Amino acid sequence: MHEHPGHEWWRTAVFYQLYPRSFQDSNGDGVGDLDGITRRLDYLNDGTRASLGIDAIWLSPTFPSPMKDFGYDVSDYTGVDPVFGDMAAMERLIAACHDRGIRVLLDFVPNHTSDQHPWFQESRASRTAARRDWYVWRDPLPGGGVPNNWVSAFGGPAWTFDEATGQYYLHSFLKEQPDLNWRNPEVEAAMHDVLRTWLDRGIDGFRIDVMGMVLKHPDLADNPPNPEWSDGHSDYRQFLWTNNRNYPDVYGAVRGIRRVLDEYEGRMAVGEVFGTPAEIANYYGGEALDGLHLAFNFQFIHESDLRGGFSAWDAPTIRRIIAASEEGLPAGAQPCWAFGNHDRPRFISRHNSDGRGDERARAAALILLGLRGSPFVYYGEEIGMVDQLDIPEERRQDPARHHSIWRDPARTPMQWDASPGRGFSRATPWLPFGPADISVAAQEHDPDSMLSLYRDAIWLRRQERALLEGSLELLPANDLTVAFIRRAPGARPVLVAVNTTGGTTTLPMPQPGRVIIATERTLDSSLAGSLLRLPPFSAAWVALE
Ligand code: NOJ
After folding, report:
1. Catalytic residue set
2. Whose C-alpha lies nearest to ligand 1, atom 10?
3. DSSP H or E run through 531
4. Could you give the CA distance from residue 335 to residue 337 in angstroms, rounded to a whole number?
């Protein structure tokens, strides 16, 4: 079916990121798999208000991989890793999702392959190998040094010396993840064919891994120093990424990918991109909107990756992030928001120094689902999962922990119930579980639970056209609350308000209205005349007359 510009399915969808290793084990090996996901689809959307009600899932990589970076080191882009099942299991999952109207996004990893990928094996075989130039090889500097000052995202030089052929190869991540050379048209063509293979199999789109690094400075020029770098320990931020991230040539590759998607009906891509709001805006393709359909805005996680650290949950920060996004995007482009993912500590754990992380997370849910744009929910966020920091050394998995970041705590298995296997697996899980009291079973019949809040908000969002497609107007600033109004022609406007402080505040209503959902029940009756009373850390949606 042809979709009219402006009314494509992904514009109104709620997306759900699934880390396949951690959703549901079906074969008793302690690792989640595709058949496990298929079994749990009713939880995600069974067409009724009793399910979460999401519209699309994004699966972190499911392709054959040595799992040095848990699937982000791909050794065969068109297969399925046996740990997750086989192609028949993937087909079953796609079909079952489509039966329920759930779209499926895979994780496309264009910047690098595994060092075990046959392309790299061939490339490293000799300097004259047919695929030598499929990767980025350079001679050592005189004296043997690395070709430039680029740093791997996981720390240490982005170059590894290959003894056999006497050259360095580039890897923006682990040394087991060599960077592809997208300046070679054969590489680009091969990667486009990968996309077509999956699009032909019925995949609805892709999340694109580190899209902004795919094309670097043609001469691989050194990066300038980062003036905001002060942390003597981490070298990742020591230099700006001027020449290996968001380098202008990358937008050509973006448009190439878009053209492949446009060969098919109703498909889309969302880019994992980093940078300033202006840099993020470029990924949409400017006024022509011929780039990616969506580009992640991660500013609610970290506002500036030059400085590091996490964004605060306070009114000025939230307002600044929303305003910058609204100002920065070309007409017709819509923002794309995530409050968590498999690379960062979970929302509650980032905002829990005073033990009030849970309350902030409830308010965050109403902001995420109330903002203009595409919301991505990270699995387990909807039941308030927290980081599991108590993982003994011998059970730690993330290779990046040896370098810069440790991501295991936010990747622990989904907690379906309080049983020893949490309903996830009958075997020892690949990572330890979080606290048993956080589970789907404990929350599904409790109208005040986090899960009920998510279900109700997602359901309501579907009914309120202003939330699905309306504009966003920020109300005048104060330091305690953030409020904005969503308006669409012919629909009732909805006001979204959050109190980010530990005290009760009041917000003058611009016009009469009715609370339609709130983080606290007492809020339902809190609209006295023209004042909305907001208890500590609460949020509400108010339908305006
Ligand atoms: C970003 C992914 O989200 C992360 O998990 C991965 O380690 C790197 N890209 C490298 O692919």
Report:
1. 209, 263
2. 72
3. strand 531-534
4. 6
Ligand 1: centre distance to CA 61 (Å): 10
Q: Which residues pair with 59 in a beta bridge?
A: 18
Average model confidence (pLDDT) across the chain: 95
Ligand 1 atom, smallest distance to 400 CA: 7
Ramachandran sector of residue 365 (left: φ over 0; alpha: ψ -120 to 50; beta: rest): alpha
Q: Are 470 and 494 in contact (CB under 8 A)?
A: yes
Residue 254 in 3-state DSSP?
Answer: helix
CB 373 within 8 A of CB 329: no
Residues with CB under 6 A from ligand 1: 69, 72, 109, 173, 209-210, 272, 342-343
- Chain centroid, CA 200 distance in Å: 24
Q: Which two tokens stand for residue 84?
A: 């997750």
Cα–Cα nearest to 177, from 266, 104, 72, 256: 72
Nearest residue (CA) to ligand 1, atom 11: 72
372: left (phi over 0), alpha (psi -120 to 50) or beta: beta
544/527 Cα distance (integer angstroms): 12
The string of pLDDT tens digits covering residues 516-543 is 999 998 776 667 678 899 999 999 999 9
- Would you say the pTM of this structure is higher than 0.85? yes
Beta bridge partners of 208: 108, 271
H or E element: which one contains 358? helix 357-370
